[in-house]
Amino acid sequence: MELLYKSTRSDSAPVTASQAILKGLADDGGLFVPVQLPKLSVSMEELSKMNYQETAYEVMKLFFTDFTEEELKRCIARAYDEKFDTEEIAPIVKADGAYYLELFHGATIAFKDMALSILPHLMTVSAKKNQVKNDIVILTATSGDTGKAALAGFADVEGTKIIVFYPENGVSPIQEKQMVTQKGKNTYVVAIKGNFDDAQSGVKAIFNDKEFAKELEASHAQFSSANSINIGRLIPQVVYYVYAYAKLLAEGELAEGEKLNVVVPTGNFGNILAAFYAKNMGVPIAKLICASNDNKVLYDFFTTGTYDRNREFILTNSPSMDILISSNLERLIYRIAGEDSAANAELMNSLAANGSYKITDAMKEKLKDFYGNYAKEAETEQTIQALYDNTGYIIDTHTAVAATVYKKYKKDTADTTKTLIASTASPYKFTRSVMNAIDKEKYHAMGDFELVDELCRISNVPVPDAIEEIRSARVLHTRVCEKDKMKETVREILKTK
Questions:
Q1: Residues facing 192 on adjacent strands
Q2: In the annotation, is 112 catalytic?
């Protein structure tokens, strides 16, 4: 049966999966959601015998129903190959009473690789399916990880161009070096004088600019998105929660049907939404624990029912979560509003106009699956240090936010349910913050790549290729623009190259 996609903001005609992937954002500014969430068609027992690629097919075939079996399996085979440095794709490490799902073994050592390795393949198949002759221009804002993962995924993919905006001085030195050294004749990287929310709002404004879209059409191009607002990014993320549960079942860590909590360090809300989708598909997930850093807009939302971005924007050592507008939350709001697009649109209009909205008590009642909390910078550092001292296992700053919040959850609830923590980035991506947390006195004076070698020594984990590559890589992208000049910059890029 074909699964169609509708907008969260109007009752416009539904579209196919391939059309939703190509468009990225609905014409009315809403996000595409499946008309209904499918149920898994195989048991967890059967899934426990499958590898990552086979699990991916079992999940994605339920969502991308206008892809043939051959098309989808080819996309999966091309995405989850030797780019990943472990055969399992997403290994699980048990440490200090929790299971860490390592989602950072891809080409750019962050969880975004899990979805951005497959999105270019889904998109090129979608373009052929819909007889699209235009170039696809991928336009993306990044708080650090999406940018590099998208650039790596789309580099030199025929019929595409990719433009990434990131906040100047708002990402880690390694993240920035990864982006500005990116090769590929179709890749463009721009630092903006502003924060991630400025970059994200600017990208959304360009998507919603109908006149600009016509201008682009005249030059045989059209925009699409690689952010997690694209359903082709979100659905591949569902896979690893299904896989993780099945893997723990296969290893005897879980009994069949036993519940599992999931903790996710959360910025744009896509990763935890994927876990929510997995739960609704039949994976025995209990609590969805939403971990925030000092930019605790989501914690406040789950606590009060009010989403309010009118606050100081704080730069932290977990920069991928330095976000005040969590775009994917809209998909959850739409669902708890009873899939009432008018009610959802009203809340989103209030967010755009006033920077806030308040959900009803009835909607808040439907958030019982979620628990929200946050970690301060000092707490995050203590968690990294304590985990290393006690177990020798080293995690990055974002994963440490999640581990800290998990400790708070246990203290608040005395819940002893087994728990999976989404480990979203390699410690090598945030080497300085991680090493300072372990021993500031010893490491604060070292250079970035000295720290890389020291991390290798104390962790016994080889330096990833993604880091080795940028040691001596030449900077290829030097563009900087004001936050209100993003459209002009896009126009200049598309017309001058």
A1: 167, 481
A2: yes
Q: How far is CA 206 from the centre of its chain?
A: 21
Instruction: Find the length of the chain.
Output: 497
Question: What is the value of pTM for the model shown?
Answer: 0.93
SS3 for 61-109 is: HHHCCCCCHHHHHHHHHHHCCCCCCCCCCCCEEEECCEEEEECCCCCCC
Residue 264 per-residue DSSP state: E
Q: Please, what are the domains in the chain?
A: 92-108+232-464 (3.40.50.1100)
* DSSP-assigned letters across all residues of 374-412: E--HHHHHHHHHHHHHHHS----HHHHHHHHHHHHHHHH
Catalytic one of 6, 112, 279, 287: 112
Q: Any residues with CB less than 8 A from the CB of 414 and at least 6 apart, and which?
A: none
Q: What is the pLDDT along the chain (497 residues), one digit of tens a residue?
A: 899 999 999 999 999 999 999 999 999 999 999 999 999 999 999 999 999 999 999 999 999 999 999 999 999 999 999 999 999 999 999 999 999 999 999 999 999 999 999 999 999 999 999 999 899 999 999 988 888 999 999 999 989 999 999 999 999 888 999 999 999 999 999 999 999 999 999 998 998 899 999 999 998 999 988 888 899 999 999 999 999 999 999 999 999 999 999 999 999 999 999 999 999 999 999 999 999 999 999 999 999 999 999 999 999 999 889 999 999 999 999 999 999 999 999 999 999 999 999 999 999 999 999 999 999 999 999 999 999 999 999 999 999 999 999 999 999 999 999 999 999 999 999 999 999 999 999 998 999 899 999 999 999 999 999 999 898 899 999 999 999 999 999 999 998 44
379's tokens: 């707490």
What are the DSSP E strand ranges found in 260-387? 260-265, 285-292, 306-308, 356-358, 370-374
Alpha-carbon span 360 to 363, nearest angstrom: 5
Q: How far apart are CA 336 and CA 346, in angstroms?
A: 14
Burial class of 70 by CB neighbour count within 10 A (0 to 12, 13 to 18, 19+): exposed
**Is 422 strand, coil or helix?**
strand
Nearest C-alpha neighbor of 207 from the set 223, 192, 195, 219? 223
118 close to 109: Cβ distance less than 8 angstroms: no
* Residues in contact with 373: Cβ distance below 8 Å, sequence separation at least 6, in sequence order: 289, 290, 291, 292, 299, 405, 408, 409, 412
